[in-house]
Amino acid sequence: MKILVTGATGFLGKTLCLRLTEAGHTVIGLGSRDADLTNSQSLRQYNQSKFERIYHLAAWTQAGDFCLSHPGEQWLINQKLNTTVLSWWQECQFQAKLISIGTSCSYAPDLDTCEENYLNGSPIESLFAYAMTKRMLYVGLQAIHQQFGGSYLYVVPSTLYGPGYHTDDRQLHFIFDLIRKILRGKYYGEPVVLWGDGEQTRELIYLDDFIHSLLALSERGESDIVNIGTGDARSIKSFAQKICEIVKYPFEDIQFDQSKYVGARSKFLNIERLKLHSPSLRFTELDEGLSRTIDWFEQYMPWKKSETLIAR
Ligand SMILES: NC(=O)c1ccc[n+]([C@@H]2O[C@H](COP(=O)([O-])OP(=O)(O)OC[C@H]3O[C@@H](n4cnc5c(N)ncnc54)[C@H](OP(=O)(O)O)[C@@H]3O)[C@@H](O)[C@H]2O)c1
Questions:
Q1: What is the CATH code of the structural domain delimited by 162-202+232-267+284-300?
Q2: Which of 121, 128, 175, 266 has a CA that sits 20 to 30 A from residue 111's CA?
Q3: Which residue intervals of 190-248 are DSSP H helices?
């Protein structure tokens, strides 16, 4: 199958392209240097190719409190790049199934995170602009499908983790931040200070498990929105405890700074629809996934004091 992937240089995109290529597909993977999607003409160079699938992963965001300080840029950039992809799909590649990625941040914190609620209520204030651009991406898919036809899939992942994360100086997703802090605590005696009281809950999904579900759902004919998570939400404290066990650092030495930004108190996905489509779904055990991630992290991430950051 001929497949185009936007966001191919990202954490998810790199491994997705690898898995698609291993499965024998012809993959064109694009980062912003290959096609800056804020430019509405950037995909014209691929007009003559006829793709069977397009995975639209590109997004301009980072973890931590990045959304708090960049709401305007996030709105402008993400609206542009999503519009470029949707327009190009509808005008030039409508034979392709368009598979796009949402965010759990789009769900309103006071509502059940079932797919029917993706557009209901209000996302948390600190992530509002980013969350709304992801909602608009879904609205765009629905609207184009309703008027013109075409086939789409919109998936909403919980936080991804595993080997192969970014090694530049961007803000890290919470699990990578926890690993770095605890390793530096162990090897350099730095105080390990976590943001918030540690009771906020999060859900992780191992990168390859996510890709497995994504590829299985991509085969389905129906246009749909589906959450992809494990349904296993845990407190930040309990993730920290697991990492401490693996790297052998005393959990009691961890401090909590309640003055810091923590984002949503609770973030986990309702996965009833996913279970309906994939009843025999199995997930990598957290201990195993974390051990593999920590092994990779120790080897490749610039967490040691003498290391300089690797340019992207
Ligand atoms: N990681 C998670 O835990 C998570 C959770 C929920 C949802 N998601 C969603 O899943 C998708 C992939 O996430 P990720 O973690 O792989 O993201 P990522 O590592 O931040 O990668 C983002 C990708 O978007 C590309 N991009 C950014 N601006 C662009 C532009 N103007 N034109 C073209 N490409 C541009 C980047 O290209 P360059 O490398 O060239 O800048 C990169 O390939 C995103 O849509 C994200 O919102 C991720």
A1: 3.90.25.10
A2: 175
A3: 207-218, 236-247
CB 58 less than 6 A from any atom of ligand 1 = yes
Q: Is the CB of 17 under 6 A from ligand 1?
A: no
Please tell me whether residue 43 adopts helix, strand or coil conformation. coil
* Whether the CB of 238 sits within 6 Å of ligand 1: no
Q: Residue 280: which pLDDT band, with cuts at 50, 70 and 90?
A: confident
d(CA 28, CA 17): 8
Q: Which of 147, 119, 152 is nearest to 135 (CA)?
A: 119
Least confident of 84-88, 130-134, 184-188: 184-188
Measured from the Cα of 8, ligand 1's closest atom is: 43
Which atom number of ligand 1 is nearest to the Cα of residue 58? 24
* Interval 189-196 mean pLDDT: 91
**Which CATH class name applies to 2-160+204-228?**
alpha beta
For a mutational test of ligand 1's pocket, the pick from 4, 12, 170, 209, i.e. the residue with the most ligand atoms closer than 8 A to its C-beta, is: 12
Closest C-alpha residue for ligand 1 atom 34: 32
Average pLDDT over residues 230-234: 93
Pocket flag, ligand 1, residue 33 (CB < 6 Å):
yes
For residue 263, give the 3-state DSSP assignment: coil
Q: Where are the domains of the chain?
A: 2-160+204-228, 162-202+232-267+284-300
